[in-house]
Each structure stands twice: as C-alpha cells, then as structure tokens.
Amino acid sequence: MKLDLYSVVELFRKSFSTSLSDEEKEELDDVLRDDYLKEAYDQLSDETFVLDKFREFDAYEYIPAFNKLKTFRRYTRVRRWITWGASVAAVLVLVFVFVYRWERQNEERIAKITQHVVLPGNNAAILKLADGRMVEIGKQPLELKEVKGSVVKYENGRLSYSSGKEGIIKDVYNELIVPIGGECHILLDDGTEVWLNAGSRLTYSVAFLGEKRKVTFSGEAFFEVKKDSRPFIVSMETGDVTVLGTSFGIRAYPGEMDYTTLVTGKVCFQSKENESVILSPGEQAVLHLSGRLEKRVVNVEEYVGWKDGLFVFRNETLSEIMKILERWYGVNVIFLDESLKELEYTGNLERYDSINTFLQLLERLKEVHYEMKENTIVLYK
Predict the structure, then answer these.
(1) For 274, which DSSP code?
(2) Distances (CA, A) of 277 to 229, 232, 246
(3) Which helix (H) or strand (E) holds 277?
(4) Residue 65 predicted with pLDDT over 70
C-alpha cells in the first residue's frame, strides 16, 4: 500500500471527530497495519500526549544552533493553531509526528539536506613579511624572524610579535590577510590584541617606535588597544578611529556602510570629509554610503558577538544575515524572490556550527526553502 500523508492525516482526523463510513474503516484498518502509523495513532488517542505536544510547540526554542529565532508571523501562527478545535489539533500533531518519516521517503530531499554539509570557517590567514615572503597561517605552530630581529610566533590560534632587541628600525611593516571563511587573532608589539573576521586585511608596524601607533585596516575586526600615552589610530578607506586604550569593533568592508562600535573607553571616529563623532560605551558611529555620519546607541553584542563565537541578530533582514554568513562559510547565496531579502529575524546563531542547521531552521519556519549545490545556496518561497 502506497501511503499518502495527507490522506492518512484526513483519515485520522475524521476518526477522532466524526463517524467513519464502512469503506473508511477498512482504509483505517489497512493504515494501522503499518507499525509507524499504529504507534502515531495510539499516541494521538491519548489526550495527555496531544496537550503535551502543544505545550512543546508553544515554548519551543531552536537551541543551540539558532537560539530563539523567530518571525512575528510565526508567533501569530502558533497562537492561531492553539485556538483551533481538537480534531484539527490531532492533524497538526500528526504532521509533526510524520515529518521525519515523510522526508525519509523522499530520497532526493534527504540527500540535499544531509549529504552536503558546509562547515564554518577556521583559523586561516596569509602573513606578508617585510621582505615579501608570504607565510600561511593555520593550524600548525610556527616561529620566524623578521628583519632586524623581531620575532613572530603563531601558537594556540594566535599570532604574536615581540622585539625587545637592539637594532629594531621604524617603518618595517607586515600585512595580515584573512580570506573568506577564515579568522585570525593577533597580538601586536605594543600589547594590543586584534581579532580579524573573514575577508579582512591589517597592515601594521612590527614595532611601534614613533609618537603614534597606526595600523591600516579593511574588513571586520575587534580591537583591544593596550593603554599607552601614544594614540592608537586605525586608518580605513573611509576614515580614522583614534584611541588611547579601549575595546571596540569595526566593520568596514569595501562598498558597504562602516560601523564603529565602542565597548569600553572612548574613541573618536573622523571621516575623510573631516566630520567626526566621539563615542562612549554602547554607542556606534555609522558612515552611510552617501557619506552621512551618524551616531546611535546600540546593543554592542549585535556587532561584536562574533568575536566570542556568536552571531547576534535583532530584527535583522535575511539579506544582511546571509551577507554575514557568506563571508564566514565561504558560500554564494542567490535569492530567487527579492521579497525574501526583507524578512526579519531575531536570534543567536552559533558561529562554529554548520550552515546547514540554520538553513533547515529557515525551512521549519515555512517562509523560506533552499536548494544547495556545492557552495551555492538558492533561497526561494
């Protein structure tokens, strides 16, 4: 007997709410010869089981991969479900009981979801030394000497510099290039720490010997600047951030709006048009593509949570979410329906989980479906 899920659902619903015809009773007897369906039918006959399932649906949180992800439409839908009658409640619960078995029968769909898993990024960077050598940074520790005695080490996921020797000269620079799908943590010569996100570049002196400490940056990073009498300057294509000792995040990818988010201390952001703002903790400078400079109060975790392994989204559009995930997972995302870009979501996503968990969750919310081929993801209604 070839089972039609929706016919079985309707048959079960009628058996709980109305009288079955003789023909329908025979169909039900045939259905209940299937052990899976017999178990589900027995559970649905138990009022306690049905009520418990509704409590689970009402309080369900998709943990740990995407904590409390929701859309406002989803909450409205859940409340509407609960107001339906008992017979429809049985149908609803049954659909959830069968979903795994139903998808298992569809081999093509299961292959799409389970066989190709896109893993998160990891420690990966290219270090360009002053003499032009290109050194790959990854999982293996290394130690090497720069010109004039500066020592560069990579161990336990962190690149570090130390000088402390005579003969160090000014204007010896290294460049750290973090590819898409990579990240790198670096300890500069002055004790400043920088966490670089995917698609970022940082150029810096191997030893800060002048009256100021200056680095050149693009991409996204979190800085913990060592307190010093000399100012620390982060120079970007669109402006400069100047500090003495503080912690802050910068997102400054080419062709996108710039965000400077202050966690502790105080910083000054000055645009190339000489507009400037002073930030206090919890404030953010936003440089729009039009050149307009804005200061606003924000939840800093939304902008720097990635550094501690968590993407935090608050009423963020799917377009912006996928832009962030494209860099980290090294994927290309195609929207077949432009309206999907404007869907808003709130939640926390574990940075080191696979992207498949997030995509499967989107499908559970019933607003977005996806197809994946290698590292290309197609989203559609």
Answers:
(1) S
(2) 21, 16, 16
(3) strand 276-279
(4) no
- Strands across the sheet with 310-317, in order? 66-70, 344-350, 310-317
Short-list 176, 149, 175, CA closest to 163: 149
Q: How many other CB atoms are found less than 10 A from the CB of residue 79?
A: 10
pLDDT at position 52: 64
Mean pLDDT of the chain: 80
In which band, very low, low, confident or very high, does the pLDDT at 380 lie, cut at 50, 70 and 90? very high
Burial class for 367, CB neighbours closer than 10 Å (0-12, 13-18, 19+)? middle
Amino acid of residue 235: S
Distance in angstroms (rounded) separating the CA atoms of residues 243 and 279: 10
- Cα–Cα distance, 8 to 16 (Å, whole number): 13
pLDDT digits (tens, 9 = 90+) for 100-140: 444 444 444 444 444 467 888 889 999 999 888 999 998 88
Matching residue, tokens 């507009």: 275
CA distance 241 to 234: 5
Residue type, 376: T
Round to whole Å and give the CA distance between 1 and 149: 79
Q: Are 370 and 328 in contact (CB under 8 A)?
A: no
Neighbour tally for 90: CB within 10 Å: 21
Decide: pTM greater than 0.85: no
Mean pLDDT, range 69-75, rounded to an integer: 41
Q: What is the CA radius of gyration of the chain?
A: 28
Higher-confidence residue of 120 and 147: namely 120
Helix, strand and coil content of the chain, in percent to the nearest 5, comes to 30, 35, 35
Q: Which of 356, 379, 380 is nearest to 111 (CA)?
A: 356
- Residue 366 CA to residue 252 CA, distance in Å, equals 34
> Which of 335, 343, 336, 332 lies closest to 367 in space, CA to CA?
343
pLDDT tens per residue across span 3-51: 555 567 677 777 766 677 888 888 888 878 877 677 777 877 776 766 6
Contact predicate 258/271, CB 8 Å: no
Of 71, 69, 90, 68, the C-alpha closest to 9 is 90
Q: Is the dihedral of CA 270, 304, 122, 117 positive or negative?
A: negative
Task: Identify the pLDDT of residue 22.
Answer: 81
Is the pLDDT confidence value at 206 over 60? yes
